[in-house]
Amino acid sequence: MTERTDDLYGRIYEAVQLVPQGKVATYGDIAAVVGNGCDARTVGYALNDLPKGQDAVVPWQRIINSSGGISTRGTRQRRLLEQEGIVFDARERIDLGTYRWEGPAAEWAEAHGFHTLRPRREETQLRLF
DNA sequence: CAGATGACTCCCA
DNA sequence: CTGGGAGCCATCT
């Protein structure tokens, strides 16, 4: 049996749990927070391997692709997100500029060995001038 | 170790 | 917009 002692998946699940309701994060965002050689693809792989019992505590549905769309099959993920107040546009995509998670608090990240997300000027720029 | 696979992402035509 | 291809990493054959 493939006993997974990999902290990697555990860390990924931990990072996913940081995403609050009503917000979303991309696979790449989670990978960046986890760091340590983690990759967007690895995040997707980990979530695909998420134990059934864990889906209750790990908000896997809040992880979407960099295009703002869902990568899972079916409509379950979309339905769950809409229940949280996430709005999909006509192209079935989520506005990352509005719903994208800003990352963990610097202190928390520091204490748990995670990384913070770098601000995305191009998407969240408010232009107060 | 090599090859295949996958809930990724970026680039180019 | 759609497709194809490269780069990426972890896991399984």
Walkthrough of the structure:
This protein is mainly alpha-helical and 129 residues long. The protein has a single domain, classed as Arc Repressor Mutant, subunit A (Orthogonal Bundle). It is 39% helix and 3% strand. It contains 7 helices and 2 strands. The protein has helices at residues 7-16, 27-34, 40-48, 76-83, 96-99, 106-112, 121-124, and strands at residues 25-26, 63-64. A two-stranded parallel ribbon has the order 1-2. Helix 1 crosses helix 2 (27-34) and helix 2 packs across helix 3 (40-48). The radius of gyration is 15 Å and the shape is globular. It starts with 6 loop residues before the first helix and ends in a 5-residue tail after the last helix. Residues 1-6 have low confidence and may be disordered. The structure holds a DNA duplex (13 and 13 nucleotides).
Structural class: mainly alpha
* CATH-scheme architecture: Orthogonal Bundle
- Name the shape in a single word: globular
CATH superfamily, please?
Winged helix-like DNA-binding domain superfamily/Winged helix DNA-binding domain
* Order of helix and strand elements from N to C terminus: HEHHEHHHH
- Low-confidence spans: 1-6
Q: Mean pLDDT, nearest integer?
A: 88
Question: What is the total tally of β strands?
Answer: 2
What's the gist of this structure?
This protein is mainly α and 129 residues long.
Task: Please supply descriptive tags for the structure shown above.
129 residues, mainly alpha, Arc Repressor Mutant, subunit A, two-stranded parallel ribbon, 2 strands, 3% strand, disordered N terminus, DNA-binding
